TrEMBL record, chains A, B:
The keyword Magnesium does not apply. CDD domains: AAT_like, WHTH_GntR. It comes from Actinophytocola oryzae. Keywords: DNA-binding, Pyridoxal phosphate, Transcription, Transcription regulation. This is DNA-binding transcriptional MocR family regulator. GO terms for molecular function: DNA binding; DNA-binding transcription factor activity; pyridoxal phosphate binding. Residues 24-94 form the HTH gntR-type domain. In the C-terminal section; belongs to the class-I pyridoxal-phosphate-dependent aminotransferase family.
Length: 482, 482
């Protein structure tokens, strides 16, 4: 019935139980020595031949089973051996190098998604760097002890690894709904903000249409728009956020049916949509018969005063689709967020979401439920606010002290980033490259614009570095500016 | 700077610390009584008014802080109150019902994605049902104790909730690579099979092109194809899997550049691509200058003999893009899988993946690493094989005993499902509805075809029910067949 023997099937019944452990106490050099010996041995065999059992290796080389497991894993990772669970470890068939991939270029066609900048932003910096990029809180600002305890508890609960409805765990939908002030039935759980954005763009606009984005805007929104086969069109902002007059003009000129905005502590500018513009923006969107995607990622990252309510609360006809996420105020790997929508748009979103990833891991949803219901949550937010204030103030003071030609515009009342304008003529991309050579990781402003930037900028994140590192960073940046 | 006071900001400094706990010992009726009392109280206040502090409620009503927390959470979920962490609980502004959503229908345009069937398949059946649908293992077949321990350990590790490269945790890429027999650099970690499929379809074909799918095929592939703006075109299969002659003809007629196939224990048919067809299929794909997406979800679900090696191993020019996942052999909420690709296609895939969800939760990846490195993994697979054999044999025996007009074609050597042909004239969708009224949940065959089905079928899953339930299920089905 199954005519293809796997490699080594003919070698009989020897079984190899691989015991790897991350709590391994054996040292790296013994693993390395054993891996070397086994590599030599494998080289003398044919592809498909079986290696000796773990027990045999233990007794032959006088090492622990843990060392054997780690050495075999290393050989597996480098492609020397293949482990078939429950059967044994076999010499891998050498995978031939690719012979002809030119055909792929024709088959793939033109590249619609450019994530070059997003890719750089997502790189995890090595040790010793002063990190003023990153869209996430530094490790020491995350409630890691709470998360460890809550996760251990959630993972023991019956059904923790089972199925969950595609719209999300009912308790989590209710918890999000309570925070936002909407009905639980309007909430769909998503795998973080990017996943929600990606689903929203795909669901809310026919393909090949323009989508209006604030200028500057979050570069992940640009990638998500491209991936949804939409054409990003910029709409200028000022210190009061999106400009309603130009928004109306952009709708009229392009025929777009969708605008993406961050009314509260926008990334990268930190601006808040002014009170007098809120109704005007909603009126323009209604008049255009369009959707507004409100990305409210920074609601829990308020430093000064209180955050304005979501635009969503003033929406009467289902124009606003709302997005929030726990990756920003909690931790990058708590990849749980919420989309809020009403009317046929909610059904369309749900269909796109199902086709995209079926449902979000129940375990992560259970951890989020624990968090919302715990006194640790308001405690974390209070502590976070104080820490963000200290770091923001340290960074702003450092910029004013060390970088006289650089303008902070404006000092953000929340969020994670300070958006600064560089002196005329400075190349922001080159500056970021030079800073990197001094181990200062900053984001150039250019990738945050989908058209010509009005001036050179940097995005400086204060949430990903300690106050001391922030101070050292502006000192080093001073050496790179004219 | 932030001119919008949130509701109740004027009510001053009273703070409400909400103490919820999932280990709550207070009983539901006291929560219900308190919720009722607070609901009345909220009704007498204005939107934005602050509720008394938790402490005040405790002393006024003589209940525990846990009961207060749960009652407030209930009021929050129903939209009566809004909790602002660290600030207090306020009477929610009543959200007006939608006034006019007809504009949405125009803005959304025609529905490109139909997930009606997928939605039904994803419904979590209530208690007391005999579940012969579901694409996942029953709870008792999942290694839940191992997962609980591994998760608790992973969640305590420093950085467990931090960032991770978009392509995945290096150790996990290496572990997948070792299992599959490829280089770790060719592996991208994805959030389960559906997410990988969705990314592959979007990355590998220009929009609006046809994509070839086996007939019948996994309905999630149909939805993913639609969501990627591709047009699903069926290619017939027989007991030896995909028919190379008709595959060649379909490429020629449609100009498609992409075929999706499950060579090993296909869902829903259970068939394996025959040895003599493997090279022929690859030759047809190469001649068409096309990609083949190999969905290898069932590799670890082998019952009889051994599974043939992946088609990927015979690929010399980067035509095969390979997909595997841990949700099927482990648990639905271990939403971790792997995509394998080489050449420019790998870069295109990575870009689409980044735009879709940035990266997969590090915690889940750490759990997967633990699993691959543990002796519990081969032990689980051995036990699983025995359990699946017992359930498959019980189901097949039940069909042969109770359902004389129904043909099992063929008895699957692995996977989760038996695909049966119904007597001519039976309506499979109606039959599934009638079975549901007897608490037997089965999948009609029609949604697994994108064109006219050749005969009525059912997909009967043996992995989601106990042997006793399987026996009872065929007995009940007998009463619904002519």
């Amino acid at each position: 019935m199954l005519p293809h023997p796997t490699p080594g099937a003919s070698n009989g019944a020897r079984r190899l139980a691989i015991a790897l452990s991350s709590t391994d106490m054996s040292n790296d050099s013994s693993v390395g020595r054993l891996a070397g010996a086994l590599r030599e041995r494998a080289a003398a065999l044919q592809p498909g031949d079986q290696l000796p059992s773990s027990r045999a290796i233990v007794s032959r080389y006088g090492v622990s089973p843990v060392t054997v497991g780690r050495a075999l894993a290393r050989l597996g990772a480098e492609g020397t051996v293949v482990t078939e669970p429950g059967r044994g470890t076999f010499v891998a068939s050498r995978r031939a190098p690719l012979e002809d991939v030119a055909w792929q270029t024709v088959a793939l066609g033109d590249a619609r998604v450019d994530t070059t900048h997003l890719r750089r932003l997502l790189e995890v910096p090595g040790p010793g760097k002063l990190v003023l990029s990153s869209g996430y809180l530094a490790d020491d600002l995350q409630p890691t002890r709470f998360l460890a305890t809550a996760t251990a508890r959630a993972a023991r609960r019956p059904g923790a690894w089972g199925r969950v409805p595609p719209t999300g765990l009912p308790e989590l939908r209710a918890a999000f709904a309570a925070t936002i002030g909407v009905d639980a039935g309007d909430v769909t759980v998503v795998a973080g903000g990017q996943s929600g954005l990606s689903a929203a763009f795909r669901a809310l606009s026919p393909p090949r249409m323009p989508v209006l984005l604030e200028a500057p805007t979050y570069m992940g929104a640009v990638s998500a728009a491209q991936a949804a086969d939409l054409r990003p069109v910029p709409v200028p902002t000022d210190v009061d956020g999106l400009r309603p007059d130009l928004l109306a003009e952009a709708f009229a000129r392009t025929g777009a049916g969708l605008v993406y905005t961050q009314p509260t502590f926008a990334n990268p500018t930190g601006t808040v949509l002014a009170a007098h513009r809120r109704q005007e923006v909603l009126d323009v969107v209604r008049a255009a018969g369009a959707f507004l995607v409100e990305d409210d990622w920074a609601r829990h990252l308020v430093i000064d005063g209180v955050a304005p309510p979501p635009l969503l609360r003033d929406d009467r006809d289902g124009h606003v689709v709302y997005l929030t996420s726990l990756t920003k105020p909690v931790a990058p790997s708590l990849r749980v967020g919420a989309l809020v929508a009403r009317g046929p748009a909610a059904d369309r979103l749900a269909a796109v979401r199902r086709a995209e990833d079926l449902f979000i891991s129940r375990l992560l949803q259970e951890v989020a439920v624990e968090l919302f219901g715990s006194p640790a949550w308001p405690r974390h937010l209070t502590a976070l606010r104080a820490a963000l204030r200290e770091r923001r103030d340290t960074l702003v003071a450092g910029i004013r002290r060390d970088l006289p030609g650089v303008t902070v515009t404006p000092v953000p009342a929340g969020g994670l980033h300070v958006w600064v304008r560089l002196p005329p003529g400075v190349d922001d991309v080159e500056l970021a490259d030079r800073a990197a050579r001094r181990d200062v990781v900053v984001e150039p402003g250019r990738p945050y614009f989908v058209a010509e930037p009005p001036a050179p900028h940097l995005r400086l994140t204060y949430a990903a570095a300690t106050p001391a590192d922030l101070t050292e960073a502006t000192r080093r940046l001073a050496g790179e500016l004219p």
